[in-house]
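Provenance and format

Records in this collection were gathered into a single text stream. Each protein contributes a sequence line and a token line. The two records reproduced below are adjacent in the stream.
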Amino acid sequence: MTESEMSYRAAGHVTSGTSIALSILMIATGIVAICVPILAGVAVTALVGWVLVFSGLLHLTFAWSASRAGAALWEILLGVVYGAIGFYLVAHPLAGLASLTIALAIYLLLEGVLELALSFELRRLPGAGWLRLDGIVTLVLALLIGSTWPSSAIWVVGTLVGISILFSGVTRLMLMMAMRRVVA
């Protein structure tokens, strides 16, 4: 075995070992988020809040470099709106969680309607039935979340984030295990 082959195998082993550990951590995090969805939801709300505060600060900073007064005013207005919403989410995470939940329900409702419309537009093409099914499932999910709001705010965001993290961890773990078999 050449030196480059040995270093490739060693790098693959270290990378996959680290990735496997991180995948297991993602799986555990996803399970915790599913088991304690309100904690995960508040964490997501705080993260979104801080991202909005930071974005607001960036818009205010960009206002100084705007070439026109109208552009500067627009950047200042965006900065204030982003900052205010972000600050509200950070200061009132439970109320922010309720807001994110209703925004998610509205998003899913619009997505479901658009998917159904597209499925009817593409009805003659193979696979259009899957798009219709996706639209129906998305609409049902939107209606379930919306009809139980605000009580759904306690579990929706945290549970969905937990499911996403769990499945990402499982997917990455399976990929790394397969990579280990190929490299070995």
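Adjacent record:
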Amino acid sequence: MADIGYTSTTPILCVNDLAASLVHYRDVLGFRINWQWSEAQAFDENAAPTFACVGRGEVGIYLCQQDQGQPGTWLFLRLASLEDLSAVHDEFEAAGAEILEPPTDRPWGMREMHVADPDGNTFRIGAALGAPC
């Protein structure tokens, strides 16, 4: 088998209403909107987008309206430090994010929290308790 070196991964999340999801990802979860697109825009420049990319830090996530997957997907987002985890928890709490579980120490050496988006996708966000794993 060839030693192929993948360079990155970008998850694709199925969302019900892309416009509403973009507002939530930007205003509640702190992501920037990198771009938006719709095949229908080739025929009508005023057509609403159905696919988009949001990003925060080095993480990019594609959002696809009612396609490519199903709601309820879980993603793990690793943070550089426990301080970053505490800060993002406080930020999300202040913005009204749906925090399913606050930061909790895990036996596998991580402190993790769970946050849901409006479509039931869950972000498991964590930082190493000691040396990074």
